[in-house]
């Protein structure tokens, strides 16, 4: 029986979604952060649960062929990255496998239709936005950085390897201004966008597929600047949209997908909970002289019920891009009642996505395709686009 403090030798044989490696001792699963399949390691048990244990690496006895030297000096301390010690080619293999495993385990599907993962053109310096935590340590020393791997405190960093270099430049300026007294710490968190002249500009300009696009300073936008165009193209391809379609764009943000869908379909109904994002969505489409979209602020389930179900507006397709927690059960019930011919579901968490798609499949829908896209190199996160159709048609 394993107990906290035990030292053991372990051969790691997998990496779970989220980035933690695993092996087995006498049939008990042991999770080991910052390992990789193929490593033979000496570990110390740090936590014992009923069905599994957690451990930390004491020594790497035989490194995996996929193990490389991490680029960032804060790796394993800062909580931003989980995969810098793994070659990028192997990161892609792991993520593709993790998507399949999520749909097999959570979605209860045999041989889920997972396509070849789309790699990122940039494996470092790809993030277009970062949120820095600002405070002082016990000695009064300024800390500007990200929360540590254990989630307890900010790690003071001088630069981040995965953000656009203009963000690192602004972070240095922010740090210098605070240290010199030019700027006071009013907020414990500070968002910095890439290639932006002001730390807190009301609207942030982005360019997608040659079109200028604006988002609120505190709003959501896809993280990987080098893959946004590819993501948009993937959504359009997998939706197989037609010029006669009415599309409901749920969790539409500032209208990213609506902007490129509008010229291809009859009508778009966009739904978003953030009022500033809704204003941006309206302005973004208006700026490009697109008039066949209407955007509504509010709860997705409520607005689906009022505008589509009760309003009897026929919807041919639904586009979903919810937060990481996935869709609320009431939202899925509303979609099942609408019975669109096709659904495109964009997610940064294949576990909650698999759960939601399984729920829809139990109500007569069919999963056609899963396309992983590596929007988050060096981390345990994965973007997946799913194509779903109404199996009763």
Provide an overview of this structure.
The protein is an alpha/beta fold and 393 residues long. The chain folds into three domains: 7-62, OB fold (Dihydrolipoamide Acetyltransferase, E2P), CATH 2.40.50; 96-121 and 205-213 and 222-390, 3-Layer(aba) Sandwich (Rossmann fold), CATH 3.40.50; 129-201, no CATH class. It has helices spanning 88-105, 165-180, 228-239, 256-261, 275-287, 300-309, 329-338, 350-361; strands spanning 7-11, 14-15, 21-25, 28-32, 40-48, 52-62, 129-136, 142-147, 154-156, 189-193, 203-208, 211-216, 246-250, 267-272, 293-297, 317-320, 342-347, 365-373, 383-390. The protein has a seven-stranded mixed beta sheet, sandwiched between helices. Strands 1-5-6-4-3-2 form a six-stranded mixed beta sheet, with no helix packed on it. Strands 9-8-7-10 form a four-stranded antiparallel beta sheet, covered by helices on one side. α1 packs parallel to α8 and α6 (300-309) runs parallel beside α7 (329-338). The longest helix has 18 residues, at 88-105. The protein is globular. The model has no long low-confidence stretch (mean pLDDT 94).
């Amino acid at each position: 029986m394993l107990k906290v403090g035990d030292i053991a030798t372990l051969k790691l044989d997998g990496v779970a979604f989220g980035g933690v490696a695993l092996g087995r001792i006498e049939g008990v699963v042991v999770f080991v952060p910052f390992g990789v399949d193929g490593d033979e390691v000496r570990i110390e048990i740090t936590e014992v649960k009923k069905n599994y244990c957690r451990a930390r690496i004491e020594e790497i006895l035989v490194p995996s062929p996929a193990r490389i030297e991490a680029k960032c000096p804060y790796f394993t301390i800062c909580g931003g990255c989980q995969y810098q010690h793994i070659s990028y080619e192997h990161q892609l293999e792991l993520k593709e496998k993790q998507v399949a495993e999520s749909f097999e385990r959570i979605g209860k599907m045999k041989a889920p239709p997972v396509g070849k993962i789309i790699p990122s053109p940039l494996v470092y310096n790809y993030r277009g936005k970062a949120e820095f935590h600002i405070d002082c340590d016990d000695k009064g020393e300024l800390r500007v950085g990200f929360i540590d791997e254990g989630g307890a405190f900010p790690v003071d960093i001088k630069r981040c390897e995965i953000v656009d270099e203009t963000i690192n430049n602004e972070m240095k300026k922010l740090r210098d201004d605070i240290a010199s007294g030019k700027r006071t710490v009013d907020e414990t968190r500070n968002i910095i966008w890439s290639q932006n002249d002001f730390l807190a500009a009301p609207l942030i300009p982005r360019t997608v597929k040659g079109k200028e696009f604006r988002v609120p300073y505190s709003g959501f936008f896809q993280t990987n600047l080098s893959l946004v165009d590819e993501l948009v193209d993937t959504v359009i391809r997998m939706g197989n949209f037609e010029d006669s379609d009415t599309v409901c764009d749920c969790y539409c943000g500032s209208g990213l997908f609506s902007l490129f869908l509008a010229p291809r379909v009859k009508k778009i109904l966009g739904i978003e909970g953030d009022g500033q994002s809704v204003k941006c969505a309206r302005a973004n489409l208006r700026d490009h002289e697109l008039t066949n979209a209407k955007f509504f602020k509010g709860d997705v389930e409520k607005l689906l019920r009022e505008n589509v179900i009760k309003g009897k507006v026929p919807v041919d397709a639904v586009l979903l891009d919810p937060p990481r927690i996935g869709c609320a059960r009431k939202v899925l019930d509303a979609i099942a009642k609408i019975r669109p011919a096709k659904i495109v579901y964009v997610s940064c968490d294949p576990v909650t996505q698999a759960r939601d798609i399984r729920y829809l499949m139990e109500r007569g829908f069919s999963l056609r395709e899963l396309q992983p896209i590596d929007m988050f190199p060096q981390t345990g996160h994965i973007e997946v686009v799913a194509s779903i159709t109404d199996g009763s048609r």
